[in-house]
Amino acid sequence: MARLRGGVAGGESSEGDVVTDSEAREVGRGQKAWDFGTVSGRWRRLEGPEDVLDLMDSDELDGGDPDGEPGLVAVVRDAGATFLGPVFEDLAGVVCTGGTIRSHIGIVSREYRVPGIIGVALADEPDDGTLVELDATGPDGVVRVSSS
User: How far is 79 from 86, CA to CA, in rounded Å?
Assistant: First the structure.
């Protein structure tokens, strides 16, 4: 299975079967920052610099190891969320409820190759720590709550 920065990317198993979570429930849709495929991680809302500092002091960024432990998917409201700078490269993915793919966060997502879905309309917001899946295989970016 392929791996992207801090997360587990969907792809093919060693037997050639496509790896997906058919039981996952869609909770939001937006614009994909780039065609990253599918990646999973633990949902974490970040509101500002204080949250990022707390995150840096925790062990939450230690996920995403090669043994399959999912990394962190940060969710932010502001498309100009520059406060993510210190941790951006360590994220499995980023979800932004505002902006467009031409916003700061969309550009940085592409440049750092961190999976991102921008301008997401959430029907239901997962709780922090929930395993989520970001899917950029279709025309829209889709956020799903994983069944795992």
Answer: 16
Q: What is the pTM of this model?
A: 0.82
Map residue 56 onto helix, strand or coil: helix
Tokens of 71: 């990394």
Q: How many residues does the chain have?
A: 148
- Chain-centroid distance of CA 82 in Å reads 16
Tokens of 116: 């991102």
What are 83-104's pLDDT values in tens digits?
999 999 999 999 999 999 999 9
Question: Which phi and psi angles does 90 have, rounded to 5°?
Answer: -90, -5
Which sign, positive or negative, has the C-alpha torsion 27, 141, 146, 4? negative
Amino acid type, 103? S
A 10 A CB-CB count for 116 gives 32
List the CATH code of the domain at 3-145. Answer: 3.50.30.10
Q: What are the φ/ψ torsions at residue 86 (nearest 5 degrees)? A: -65, -20
